[in-house]
Each structure stands twice: as structure tokens, then as C-alpha cells.
Amino acid sequence: MHKYRTHTCSEISKKNSGSTVKLSGWIHRKRDHGNLLFFDLRDHFGLTQCVIENSNSFFKTVEKIKPESVVCVSGEVVDRSSDTVNKDLFTGEVEVKVSSFEILSESKDLPMPVFGEQEYPEETRLKYRFLDLRREEMHENIVLRSKVISFLRNKMISDGFLEFQTPILTASSPEGARDFLVPSRMHPGKFYALPQAPQQFKQMVMISGFDKYFQIAPCFRDEDGRADRSPGEHYQLDMEMSFVEQEDVFKVVEPIFFKLFTEFGKNKTVSKTPFRKITYKTSMLKYGTDKPDLRNPIEIFDVTEVIKRKDVKLDIFKKLIAKGGVVRAIPAPNTSSKPRSFFDGYNNWAKEEGAKGLGYILLEKNNGKFIGKGPIGKFFSEKAIGELAKICKAKENDAIFFSSDELKEAERISGIVRQKLGKELNLTNDKKFEFCWITDYPMYQYDEKEKKIDFSHNPFSMPQVNSKDFDKTDPLSILAYQYDLVCNGYEISSGAIRNHLPDLMYKVFFKAGYSKDEVNNKFEGMIKALSYGAPPHGGMAPGIDRIVMLLAGKNNIREVTLFPMNQNAQDLLMGSPSKPSELQLKELNIKILEKKK
């Protein structure tokens, strides 16, 4: 017989009745019935109930053993009585009558119990992550993560992609976040950067003559943590293809995600392919965000022209419009009968979110024509109300909220109002995965803080303006062949068709304030590679952590990550970051300066 087990804790059933088995695992929980003691034995695969009589020489040992101790038991498989069968377990019709019991590793008192799924403080969970991962739900999440990665790897290989590994120690690159820097011992005063993404390397893979590449790539960004983003590091399915246009990338990616979410999505409906395509401009108007949750049917409408009408007397809105502002309308279906407190609550909440306020009207009908009720309803003529209802596709008994501000702020507020209404009115269907592509991103944006033109997305993307016309085109009007894959309000992936023309690359960077010498200095390898014949190419990089989070039905990425950091970018289990020794600093030619108070 095997030293530790003949079966796993999920394998035993009535067909094993009468046979002797050996199992190893953790003591999950115990139930002392006086003359009988029951305990559930747990391993990676499942649970088996074991029973020991008080006449057994091992009874006292089992009685004293603490939960989560690792043991090995032998015994006969016996049928449970009909009233004690556990129909929720594959092993629930039988139990093991213990004849032999060996302690393999004894546990101390637990800082947090493994049995049960009650909530514990995050600090405790992360400090004792090895215990947290023993809990059934967490264990399943990590198994799901492994299966998702295996699915993606196998699908990419079957689709003709080759798996390569790109360097971890590399040079700094403007990817949009802070780099993690690694000091070089051999080159004092110089630093490597951990890759925010394998962007330049994967492009050089295409320039090297390979046709399709992928890797499950670790990426490092010195960013603040949030629920859908880990501080420090994350993993992505990095991919790139040669001789492709935007639609070619979509046609490769869409079937992969449809199959992935169909297989692991717990019977939720998945968007049929081809996925919906929405321009960035349209998305910001209709949904107030470039990460729209399409499970929510509410759309936002621009009603600036209606408010400008002479038969609308909303002076406060008109003054904002005169200063360059806009007015967005957010319909709230079937809410006109709700109490005043409902609408006042939204107005107060919007102010807490930074809005100037949130006006609203209630739509009713009189002799077949719309009339506006509520605090500002009297400022609209009957014709203006009719025009407003028509634009917003509103019906009788609907309400309409208004956000008026400069464009970006009006978009932001209307977007979060739409999101809140969708959830509180039970309009957001949580039984679906709704995918869409957001396309035609602006190549540049104006940085108000730095008072300069900067890249809005990826600097290596192909602009939608040819090289000949590029110099004379207003940078803020230039769109790029950039796209995001969005699901249920989360950005799953960013991607782009790349700029493979060095002369155009210089022009693109020049508009953002980079001289030719600076480009040559910062991107020496990329410019050099592009100068020796580069194919048109493009790709994207779906985030593994966020994909698994969605499939597991979680709202926090730490629930699907083996050993995550906390919000403050600290590893509470391993005590990282930690102070280096004086010897380490000396070898690296580094001196730590005290921060001035």
C-alpha cells in the first residue's frame, strides 16, 4: 500500500464499500458525539467523512488534534445510514471507519479558521494567505485561474501562435505608469526597469520575421492598488501578429473570448460574435466612460441644444453652456412615482461625487402630450419637453436627470449616475457577459497640469493620418488605430495596430515634445529595428487577473491572485518591501537619504 494514500478525498463512493483505504489530508472540522467522533478529512480534491469509536486506541489522539493538522488515516469504507447521507458531496454516501491514524504535521491554534466562508479582515487573510487559500472558495478561484491560463495557452498554440519569453530586466519606456527600477551592480549609477509590458520586444519579434507570438507575461507597474488592479505586478496574455489590420485582430480574439467565457462563465450568456464596436467618442457620449457596462440598457443623451432654446428658462444651465459647457440627460425608467427623497438622494450623492448638482424632471402626459413635473419642470415649455422626451426616447412615468458642466466632468458624472441607476433599478443583468470593442481613441490629449500635448494611450500606435498630412494636422483631432476590449464595465485588454514607419514615428513623438535625438536615445532599439524593414503589425494584451475576476464573479482582483499585495503595495506574508543591508547598498553604490520632514 502507498505510504500516504490509496485514494484522494474526493474519490470514495459506495463502490468502495467494504474495502480498506488510506487517505491523507487536513483535519477540516470535528464533531464529537461522545462515544463516536466524526471528522472531515480534506485534500486538494475534496472531503471524506471519517469516524472513530471511543474504544479505538487512537481516539484520544484524534480528540486532541487541532483543526488543519495534516494526518494519514486507514480504515474500512462503510455506508452511511440513509438519514446521514450528504447529497452535496460525491463521497457523501460513505465514511471511513478509522483503524489507523498518523499525525504527519500538527497545526498550532489558527489565526483564522478554514472551515466556513465567513469574512475576515484583509490584513489577516494576506498575512496568513496559505490558510486563506485552503478555504474552498479561494481554492476554487485559484484552480479556475490555472484552467483559464491553460485554456488560453492551448487556444493560442492551436491558432498558430508561437510562445516566446521576453526580457524582465530592460530599459524604461513611457507606457503610462511609473517604472520599477533595479540598480545595476556592474554599472554604478545606472538602472534597469522592470517591463510595464513587453511592448517593444513583442514588436521586435514581428520585425524579426515571426508571424504570430504570445506569452503569459508578467508586467510591473508602480501604481496605486484598487479593486480591479493589483499594485506592483499583473499577468497578461500578450500577443502580436504580422500583416494584419484592426479587423484581423478582432477576428482572432473574439472566438477565443466567446469560448473562454462560455466554458468557464457559470452558464451566463455571452455576447455573440462579432462583438459590438463603439467609437471612443460615442462611448463617452452614450455611457460617460470608455469602459461601458452594456448589461445596463440606459443611454445618455446630449441635450445642450434643447436647453439653449428660448422656451427653456434654465438660466444656470445656459450660463454653463455659454462658458463652453454641455448638458447631458440620463433617463431613469419608471421612476416618476418615486418619492422626492429618491431624487434628492441622487442630487446629494452627485454633489459628494464632485458634481455641481443633478437636476431632474418627471415626465407625465396630459391629453397625449408630455408635461414636465418636479422642481425644474416649470422652466420647460410643452414643446421643449416633447423634444426632450423624443431625444431621450423617454416614456410616460420616466424621469430624466441632468448633468451640466464642462465636457469631461459632465461625461464623468452622467456615467456614474447611469451606473448607479442601472444597479438600483435592477436594470443591469448580472446573468450576462457583454463584450464590446472601443475604437478610434484620440492619439493625443492636452495635459492640463503640464500644459502640453501628451499621448492619450499608446505612443507606438499607428495614427489614422498618413505621414504626408501628419505635420499640418491638429494633434487633438488625430485618432489612432487603438482599441480596448471591454466586458461588463471592465477594460479586459488594450491593443493597437503599431506604427511600423520610423519617419512617421519621429513625427508622432515630435507632436508630444520629443526631439529626434530624444527618440533615438529613449527608443534606440525600436527605431533601429524599424529602420531595417518592419511588417505592418498589431496585437493586444488581455489581463489574466481581470478575466479570472469576472469569471469567478468577484469584485476584487486579490480574490483570484495567489499571493497579492495589499492596497499599500506591501506583501504582508513575506514582509516586502524590506530594508536592504548596508553590504547590499555598498555593492550597488547606493546611499539612502533621509526624507526631510
Describe the model.
By secondary structure, the protein is of the alpha+beta class. Helix content is 29%, strand content 24%. The protein has an eight-stranded mixed β-sheet with strand order 6-9-10-24-23-22-19-12, with helices on both faces. Strands 1-2-3-5-4 form a five-stranded mixed beta barrel. Strand 1 (20-32) and strand 2 form a beta hairpin.
- The general outline is globular
Low-confidence segments, given as residue ranges, are: none
Largest sheet data: 8 strands, mixed
Report the span from N to C terminus.
67 Å
How many helical stretches? Answer: 18
Radius of gyration: 30 Å
Instruction: Specify the structural class.
Output: alpha+beta
Strand order of the largest sheet: 6-9-10-24-23-22-19-12
Number of strands: 24
Strand content bin: 15-25%
Helix content: 25-40%
Tell me, rounded to a whole number, the average pLDDT.
94
